[in-house]
Design a protein that fits this description.
The protein is mainly alpha-helical. It is 55% helix and 4% strand. The protein contains 8 helices and 2 strands; from the N terminus they run ααβααααααβ. It has helices at 3-17, 20-30, 60-83, 87-90, 94-120, 141-162, 172-196, 226-233; strands at 52-56, 240-244. Strands 1-2 form a two-stranded parallel ribbon. Helix 1 (3-17) packs antiparallel against helix 5, helix 2 runs parallel beside helix 5 (94-120) and helix 5 runs antiparallel to helix 7 (172-196). Residues 1-7 and 13-49 have low confidence and may be disordered.
């Protein structure tokens, strides 16, 4: 089975079925499918201190850790939203609750996929913990959706901006998978925007992201450098994450 097929099957099974056992079975088939083959896959991306994580984007393994960090943050957020005692009150519509829980399941799948990819390359996923400013109210639909919009737009721009760090023959399979993940993140962003402003053009309107390269006229979405993304994500993560090799 080709690299891309194995990767896609592993990710797809975890997203659609939520079966970690099945995912790990497929991950065991990967072998060299997500190996970075002499691209510096030593585990030097995580600093010894529990309070800092240093990512070197010249190392493909650290690009995986970058993706993992963003997916871990999103997975944590949506898990907290769905587990909050006020979830059914804040989101009285069963349809809206289903959307939120579906997004949660996707983010958990993405987090676990990148965690497995890091381990397959001899690394360890960064140990991260989250924090949320007082402005994030998990019992408020408005606050939850505003935060979700921030995270989803950030995630899309992050993948679009980091793709160039996987643009080598050795990492081509990972770049393909990253493209498939970012398309799902873009669907999330669209769904959240529609929940905020239903029956409008908000689901596809990216004019507010023009400073990050999004363009309504050309139909292009945002792209942000790792430095920009990490600065935006830092207020939600206890550990300090730094980026080099950009």
């Amino acid at each position: 089975m080709e690299r891309e097929q194995i990767l896609t099957q592993a990710l797809g099974r975890l997203e659609s079925q939520g079966s970690r056992r099945e995912f790990m079975r497929l991950a065991g088939m990967l072998g060299g499918a997500i190996a970075l083959a002499a691209c510096g896959n030593d585990d030097n991306g995580t600093a010894p201190s529990n309070n800092s994580v240093a990512l070197n984007f010249a190392q493909p393994l650290d690009v995986l850790k970058y993706a993992f960090a963003l997916e871990a943050l999103e997975a944590d957020f949506y898990t907290k939203v769905a587990a909050n005692a006020a979830f059914s009150t804040a989101f009285s519509s069963a349809g809206e609750r289903q959307i939120i829980t579906d997004i949660r399941d996707h983010e958990v799948a993405h987090r676990e996929f990148f965690k497995a990819a890091i381990a397959a390359n001899g690394g360890t996923a960064p140990a991260l913990s989250t924090k949320y400013p007082s402005t994030v109210d998990f019992s408020s639909r408005t606050s939850v959706l505003a935060t979700a919009r921030t995270f989803e737009d950030l995630g899309v721009s992050a993948y679009n901006g980091a793709g160039k760090y996987l643009a080598t023959a050795a990492t081509a399979a990972l770049l393909t998978i990253a493209g498939k993940v970012v398309s799902v993140e873009a669907r999330h962003a669209s769904a959240i925007r529609d929940l905020i402003s239903p029956d409008t053009d908000a689901f596809a309107n990216v004019s507010d992201l023009a400073t990050l390269g999004a363009s309504e006229s050309t139909g292009l979405d945002a792209k942000a450098s790792p430095s920009t993304v990490l600065a935006a994500a830092q207020p939600f993560i206890n550990q300090t994450i730094t980026a080099t090799g950009l």
